[in-house]
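Q: For a teaching handout, I want to show students what a protein-ligand complex looks like in token form. Below are the inputs, and the small molecule is magnesium ion. Please produce the holo structure.
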Amino acid sequence: MIVYPRIIAHRCGGALAPENTLAGLEAAARLGCRAVEFDVMLTADGVPILMHDETLERTTRCRGCVAEQTLTQIRACDAGVPTLAEAMAVCEHHKLWTNIELKPSSGLEEETGTVVGVWLAQYWNGQGVISSFSEKSALAARRHLPDEHFALLYEALPADWQASRARLGAVVVHLDAAQVDHAVTEALAGLPWACYTVNDRTAADQLFASGCAAVFTDRPDLLLPAFA
Ligand code: G3P
Ligand code: MG
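A: Here is the structure, written as tokens, with magnesium ion included.
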């Protein structure tokens, strides 16, 4: 049975630092967070890096598609983009439980799951959970990680979630908090579930009261003192 820390810093450190950066992980650790989530995507040369969008312009000083630029090219214009290896080293140093979300560029679903799964099988201590909106990616990673914890990741719970759960061997469900209602909590009874992205205490309070195991938040500074 997987045990979830209740407060998970979203995209490394939430709003405490730029998203998906080592600075975010350090900020989360400083604040006393025990758990973080981040997004992982492949560069053109197949290196897993922390990145949410398929294009670079929102979060870096670069432009263009992540999948079309090598790590060296991306780093040349923004040194703050970490590799998965660098991020995991910081997580291990601070003993941070980690949700590795596979975020494949379109068309690279299988390859992303495979590359990350192979890397994690070799280097990860297994303290956390793997998830993806792409079932193809998650299943590709699963082939290399038979014993690790996997989560189903959805916006809203689909009708066929039980079949996906069986295919992936998932032990938990991650959902958009805005899509959770009574029918969903009933459907999930007996299985741990967590919600993103929850940035205020009242919403977190209500979710925990309805059985939510954990929330992903951009404001761990607000939620940790109340719920940790
Ligand atoms: O994995 C939970 C959450 O991070 C999913 O949404 O778009 O922030 O990756 P997103
Ligand atoms: Mg994410």
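A: Two things your students might notice: The longest strand covers residues 35-42. The chain has a mean pLDDT of 97.
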